Amino acid sequence: MSQQDTGPPMRYSGFNVIRQGLSGNKGWTPAWRDPAPKAEYDVVIIGGGGHGLSTAYYLAKNHGLTNIAVVEKGYLGGGNIGRNTTIVRANYFLPGNSEFYSHSLKLWEGLEADLNYNVMHSQRGLINLFHSDGQRDAFVRRGNAMINQGDDAILLDREGVRKHLPYLDFEQTRFPIYGGLLHPRGGSARHDAVAWGYARGADQRGVDLIQNCEVTGIDVSGGRVTGVQTTRGAIRAKKVAIIVAGRSSQVAAMAGMRLPIESHVLQAFVTEGLKPVIDHVVSFGMGHFYISQSDKGGLVFGGDLDFYASYAARGNLPMVEHVMEAGMTLMPMIGRAKVLRSWGGIMDMSPDGSPIIDKTGIEGLYLDCGWNYGGFKAVPASGWCMAHLVATDTPHEYAARFRLDRFRTGHLLDEEGTGSQHNLH
């Protein structure tokens, strides 16, 4: 499909679905173009995942920049945006993270209308379980912080949890369920649909989405970025944004940078389709196990990182066993479900568990990375704030604390309170 093969973009609607269904579905137009790369752009975004695509979209929508290329070594949405457990929430505690994820949730709530695309955002509610008096106290503090930020939080006692989640094992003695923190506006969304929606929206505003185009070098001259080298030729650019998740360290090294990032594998799993049974997102505090049920009926769940650094998008069997044990401890009924498949995402883990959205020491080169477990839910706000940074050269107020130099100055955002070891976040 060449760049000029597409006509005006079709607006999706119930009427068009019916009309196309009656006409054999022969009138649908491609969702986005497949252009060849131009010789020069104002902005080149390295990475065609959720964060890269949302950055391109908001650069065009909010700032009127359209001479933009998103270059992706594979296909759009083939990385972590399509390898996650789809959870959307704004239940963060520390200033800096709290207002950022609160803004992201507000963007999620208007995303489908904004993109004219069904991302299947479902605010089914998220419940974080606690299993001790100390955990209860911590979640009370977190809930109060969420409410003070303008988000919602409801503290549930044991019977309150039983009312919402009657299928849990309330008789276990190892990790007794004391209660839970309910975040009613939390939920899930269709991960790859988010990538497709942002890709379509960016394309409609003139952004070139260039797939199968791996960046092999970053050109720097006189302390300023001048472009990128790719498998499809050199591309000149006034500004370059690195938004490549678990590959951040490797790509930044092309510009002579060493990042405070480790890449780790996070596995996730999905079962066969089952009748509706889990109508919330549930997080098991003592086992770091989280589960929800997809629209197709599959139970989608995951747990901890594999705890060793790796660039392989696959995990080890001991962690599979650990996740299954946590699931069985929480809800023994899960043992009857047949696991269809598993996958691994390459997580870019920062030393304090919080992200980086900042300019680098090279003029015109920008960085968006270090999302740890929080990447999917952050997609809208990450793109919003990164676009603001690239367009204006000033940090957005919601990302003002995500500076790269905080690891040198000590102004860390240790959300989990687990110190500076990457794989503990």
From TrEMBL:
One of its GO terms (biological process) is tetrahydrofolate metabolic process. The keyword Oxidoreductase applies. Its cofactor is FAD; FMN. Pfam families: DAO. It comes from Neogemmobacter tilapiae. SUPFAM superfamilies: FAD-linked reductases, C-terminal domain, FAD/NAD(P)-binding domain. One of its GO terms (cellular component) is cytoplasm. Keywords: Cytoplasm, FAD, Flavoprotein, FMN, Nucleotide-binding, Oxidoreductase. PROSITE patterns: RHODANESE_3 (PS50206). It catalyses: sarcosine + (6S)-5,6,7,8-tetrahydrofolate + O2 = (6R)-5,10-methylene-5,6,7,8-tetrahydrofolate + glycine + H2O2; sarcosine + O2 + H2O = formaldehyde + glycine + H2O2. Signal peptide: none annotated. InterPro entries: FAD-dep_OxRdtase, FAD/NAD-bd_sf, Rhodanese-like_dom, SoxB. Its EC number is 1.5.3.24. Belongs to the SoxB family. Residues 43-87 form the Rhodanese domain. This is Sarcosine oxidase subunit beta. It is found in: Cytoplasm. The keyword Flavoprotein applies. PANTHER family: FAD-DEPENDENT OXIDOREDUCTASE DOMAIN-CONTAINING PROTEIN 1 (PTHR13847:SF287), SARCOSINE DEHYDROGENASE-RELATED (PTHR13847). One of its GO terms (molecular function) is sarcosine oxidase activity.
